[in-house]
Amino acid sequence: MRIEGLGVIDEATLELDPGLTVVTGETGAGKTMVVTGLHLLSGGRAEASRVRSGASKAVVEGRFDAPPGSSAAKVAGDAGAEPDADGALIALRTVTTDGRSRAHLGGRSVPVGVLSELSEQLIAVHGQNDQLRLLRPAEQRGVLDRFAGEELLNALADYRRVREQWHAVATELAERAARSRELAREADLLRHGLAEIQAVDPQPGEDDDLVARARRLADADQLRESATASSYAVSGSPEGDPDAPGALGMIADARHRLSASEDPRLRDLGPRLAEAEALLADVGSELTSYLESLDADPAALEQVLARQAELKGLTRKYAADVDGVLAWAQDAERRLSGLDTSEEALAALATRRDELAVELAAKAHALTELRVAAADRFAKEVTVELSGLAMGQASIDVVISTRWAEPNETHALRVAGGDGGDALVHAGPDGIDEVELRLVAHDGATPLPVHKAASGGELSRVMLAIEVVLAHSDPVPTLVFDEVDAGVGGRAAVEIGRRLARLAASHQVIVVTHLPQVAAFADRHLVVDKSAKGGVSRSDVRVVADKDRVVELARMLAGMDSTETGRAHAEELLTAAEKDKKASRKRRRR
């Protein structure tokens, strides 16, 4: 990933390891800009305040691995993006000082939403804000559903499909019953309008046809005179007057004269005159037909004017022209079919609502069963992770309860109760269940909501345990943890580093941390350094290894980089972490 002009970072390139990459640095050095850059590449909100002072724009560029046939490759293909020769996708996001943002993918300008879709397949960012969000009941239900996997998500989709139908029918039934008088009046008006239109029976485009016909009838004498004169000019007089041969007669005479000529050039003009003669003959025939159809009947004109008056009566009420009147009639018929307030129609709707309610209750029950089964597995896996994070006596309970309907709730769902009777529940878009994570701090302790039972450091460990469990069921290849180890130290910090290193065996893991115990487990260690020149602060990112890495770990150990004791402690941390990683790799190979 390359960052330019973002926060305190002037320009930096981050080579991220396929395993565990840690990012460290002094407070205020700009470590969080790495996560901010990832957020921008993931289609996150662009803020002008993030642009470095004195820079015209901030640029973040990332190189993603999107194998052919993967979901990420499909998102890119649909957007018209093209991968590089090695199959990698280049994503680019720019933010200007006025807050404008642009996104590019695979050499193509794309909407920011495309980067969001791509990142959903490739990267998941977990930070302290995610910890706070996980404390909300709705988020805890979402976490459990995500852990449960595809079977539950498919069941949830089925539930939502039936719920949408049930809600629509129940709403329509309630509206029809409450507005029966108003709807009946509206239905009467629609029926009256339809009856009036059906009685006149207008035809598409009839008003335009009548205008043309009326004009012909009113101007019949003038039209006949013009057509007759034109016919004479083309075909000659019907009496065959030799002094008025017409154009056809004159062309015939010309052809005769040319054909008698001995000059080839004159004879060659004969066929062209024949073409002109054929064309004029067609015009003469059409003029004769027009004269025969011309009607000067006053009664016919009165009929046309009367029909126009009928149509005008409709266009004054319903639309500007006949085609608009016909469109109004079609819409009225459609609306009328939805305004049936008869007892039979209401009974049919009620029957359909009850049928859908039974189906919805079954879908909700199936959803609950899947959540209960997943809750037990989820609780056990998180508890195991807690034991490895120096919380051996703690355990997690996942409590699933029913959300009962509020008094006077409009659309409550009736389900079978535990005592054999029926009960009314709130059927929300995610089912009828409430999900709550509870922590048992030690043996014999009362289970309490996580945020009430855990201290600050314990809460971080609980959230990390949840993130680790979710990561194993998360299909995205890259996981980012932004200081989720806040408030943790000592042995627990070592266990967090060990957990993240194990997670890096199956995912690319990027961790922003202030703990040397975590940083010691890294496969690649990046340090964000801040310096000031000429009164301007800037940060860059460098890879540290060997002695430089020992110095950085010693600095993280309460600023002990300048002491032999601090460096010895840092070397000890690195040695212990490396031994642990090798042992873990051996166990996996077995």
Q: Could you characterize what this model shows?
A:
The protein has a domain at 206-320. The two termini are 35 Å apart. The strands form four sheets. Strands 2-1-4-5-6-7 form a six-stranded antiparallel sheet, covered by helices on one side. Strands 8-14-15-3-16-17 form a six-stranded mixed sheet. With 590 residues, the chain is an alpha+beta fold. The protein has helices at residues 31-41, 71-78, 112-122, 128-134, 137-148, 150-178, 180-200, 206-218, 220-235, 246-260, 264-267, 270-293, 298-317, 322-337, 343-387, 450-453, 456-472, 490-503, 516-519, 546-556, 564-589; strands spanning 2-6, 9-13, 20-25, 57-65, 88-96, 101-105, 108-110, 123-127, 395-402, 412-416, 422-426, 433-440, 448-449, 478-482, 508-512, 524-533, 536-544. The chain is elongated and about 135 Å long. This is DNA repair protein RecN. Belongs to the RecN family. Residues 225-234 have a biased composition (Polar residues). One of its GO terms (cellular component) is bacterial nucleoid.
Structural class: alpha+beta
Radius of gyration: 42 Å
Portion of residues in helices?
Answer: 55-70%
**Spatial separation of the terminal alpha carbons:** 35 Å
Mean pLDDT: 84
Strand order of the largest sheet: 2-1-4-5-6-7
Shape field: elongated
Sheet-strand content, in percent, reads 15-25%
Could you describe the largest sheet, including whether it forms a barrel? 6 strands, antiparallel
Number of helices: 21
The low-pLDDT segments are none
Number of strands: 17
